[in-house]
Write a structure and sequence with these properties.
The protein is α/β, with parallel strands linked by helices. It has one domain: Alpha-Beta Complex (putative 2-phosphosulfolactate phosphatase). The chain is built from 10 helices and 11 strands. The protein has helices at residues 30-39, 51-60, 91-94, 106-112, 127-137, 154-170, 178-190, 194-200, 202-209, 213-219, and strands at residues 2-6, 21-25, 44-48, 66-72, 75-76, 98-102, 118-122, 141-145, 175-176, 229-232, 235-238. The strands form 2 sheets. It has a 7-stranded mixed sheet with strand order 9-1-8-2-7-10-11, sandwiched between helices. Strands 3-6-4-5 form a 4-stranded mixed sheet, with helices on both faces. The protein is globular and about 50 Å long. The structure holds D-malate.
């Protein structure tokens, strides 16, 4: 199994993903939100790369059936129903709804990987479920960390390292690119206490300054959700739904 990890989607062309399996990670907080929303009964999550496109699609889906969610500079956007905190995506709020999600980096990374043969969404919350899914599939895959501006970020790289390490426990015959090898080393060094790693990360500090410190604790709940969110035909749904 070949496992390639990219620290950011920035250098990749959309067509790179054609015919490839891909995992996108934005553990703080977009992919944690997606896992939570689907686990709590959302019909689907539609990731969008621009605010304008979010507005356009929301006008096309029957009102009452959709929710606009996401953030700009970590904060809920004026006129949106929900922000980018997993705690907002309760069963009462999301059940049966199509959620149009726009975030600074996470949803952009997902949209970038849209041509993948198979695209799944990973966070610490559903790490084991994604590892098992990939182990059963037994095919090469790419991991894309959402990051910001092309730079390495700790929360996604260390999460990716944990995912790869879980796979290596069961599947020894894997070839890793440099990014994947480095992510495993970072997981060994910093992944022992995920909440601490989040708190000390650049983005974790920004979230804390902006009053979202509780989200760090929620997003650090390893394997809290048994969900495999899959992107197909423009929206993310639970596997087999
Ligand atoms: C992102 O997409 O960059 C993040 O989810 C931002 C955030 O934490 O709100």
């Amino acid at each position: 199994m070949n496992i390639n990890l990219f620290l950011s989607p920035e250098s990749l062309d959309d067509f790179y993903f054609q015919d490839k399996n891909c995992v996108v990670i934005d553990s703080l907080r977009a992919t944690s939100v997606i896992c939570t929303a689907l686990a709590n009964g959302a019909k689907e999550v539609i990731p969008v790369a621009t605010f304008e496109y979010a507005m356009k699609i929301s006008a096309g889906i029957m009102s009452g059936q959709n929710l606009l969610g996401g953030e700009r500079n970590t904060k809920k956007i004026d006129g949106f129903h929900v922000g980018n905190s997993p705690s907002e995506y309760t069963p009462e709020t999301v059940s049966g709804k199509s959620i149009i999600l726009f975030t600074s980096n996470g949803t952009k990374a997902i949209v970038k990987a849209k041509f993948s043969k198979d695209l799944v969404i990973c966070s610490y919350l559903n790490l084991k479920a994604i590892a098992n899914y990939l182990l059963e599939k037994k095919e090469d895959f790419e991991i894309v960390c959402s990051a910001k501006g092309g730079a390495l970020n700790m929360e996604d790289t260390v999460c990716a390292g944990r995912l790869i390490s879980k796979i290596l426990e069961k599947e020894k015959d894997c070839t890793l690119n440099d990014g994947a090898t480095a992510a495993c080393a970072l997981d060994r060094e910093f992944g022992g206490n995920v909440h601490k790693m989040f708190r000390e990360s650049d983005h974790g500090k920004i979230l804390t300054e902006n009053g979202f410190q509780d989200d760090l604790e929620i997003c650090a709940q390893i394997d809290a959700l048994e969900v495999v969110p899959v992107f197909t035909s423009g929206s993310i749904k639970l596997l087999n739904n």
